[in-house]
From TrEMBL:
Matching InterPro entries: TusA-like, TusA-like_sf
CDD domains: SirA_YedF_YeeD (cd00291)
Name recorded for this polypeptide: Sulfurtransferase TusA family protein
Organism: Aciduricibacillus chroicocephali
Family that this chain belongs to: Belongs to the sulfur carrier protein TusA family.
Length: 75
């Protein structure tokens, strides 16, 4: 999936992946896609809830070699 920006949040624990995702999302324009890579298992629930509450759309998420990947479209 094509992303406009990639955020590396691997190796950091909650709440930092959300804090960094929010900061990166602020740099994008509506409709653009942010790809987030995280290793904190709590990120799946956190990012899903955060995207929904912020009016963004979680397009896809997958796990690859212990890395959680998320594609979030800015609302």
């Amino acid at each position: 999936m094509e992303a406009n920006k990639v955020l590396d949040a691997k190796g950091i624990a909650c709440p930092m992946p959300i804090v960094r995702t929010k900061k990166a999302m602020d740099e994008l324009e509506s409709g653009q896609v942010l790809e987030v890579h995280a290793t904190d298992k709590g990120s799946k629930n956190d990012l899903t809830a955060w995207a929904k509450s912020g009016g963004h759309e979680l397009l896809k998420d997958e796990e690859e070699n212990g890395v959680l990947k998320f594609w979030i479209k800015k609302g």
